[in-house]
């Protein structure tokens, strides 16, 4: 990965299991809201969800995260 692509960017990271219970959902919502509150600086924000298990992620949750600037989902 070319790290120069991240220069000047802010990374908001959520680390949670694929089941994503209420606290996880709140964190992902806050991630989206924080980005929008930054106004003209919002394009500097990249959102990332690190999934810590091999379970399936609910399709509806993935759909919610796809709006606007999508959240990148990676398994770790």
Describe the model:
With 76 residues, the protein is α/β, with parallel strands linked by helices. Helix content is 32%, strand content 24%. It has two helices and three strands. Strands 1-2-3 form a three-stranded parallel beta sheet, covered by helices on one side. Helix 2 (59-66) links the parallel strand 2 (45-51) and strand 3 (72-75). It is globular and about 35 Å long. The two termini are 17 Å apart. The relative contact order is 0.24. The model has no long low-confidence stretch (mean pLDDT 91).
Question: Summarize this, please?
Answer:
Helices cover 32% and strands 24% of the residues.
Shape descriptor reads globular
Average pLDDT, to the nearest integer?
91
The structure class reads alpha/beta
Give the strand content: 15-25%
Summarize the main sheet: 3 strands, parallel
Taking all Cα atoms into account, the compactness measure Rg is 13 Å
Strand order of the largest sheet: 1-2-3
For the termini, the CA-CA separation is 17 Å
Task: Detail the poorly predicted runs.
Answer: none
* Oligomeric status: single chain
Helix count from the secondary structure assignment: 2
The proportion of residues forming helix, as a percent range, comes to 25-40%
Number of strands: 3
User: How are helices and strands ordered from N to C?
Assistant: EHEHE
Attribute tags:
single chain, alpha/beta, 76 residues, globular
């Amino acid at each position: 990965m070319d790290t120069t692509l991240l220069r000047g960017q802010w990374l908001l990271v959520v680390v949670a299991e694929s089941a994503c219970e209420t606290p996880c959902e709140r964190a992902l919502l806050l991630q989206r809201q924080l980005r929008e509150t930054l106004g003209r600086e919002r394009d500097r924000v990249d959102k990332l969800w690190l999934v810590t298990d091999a379970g399936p992620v609910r399709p509806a949750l993935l759909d919610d995260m796809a709006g606007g600037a999508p959240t990148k989902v990676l398994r770790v």
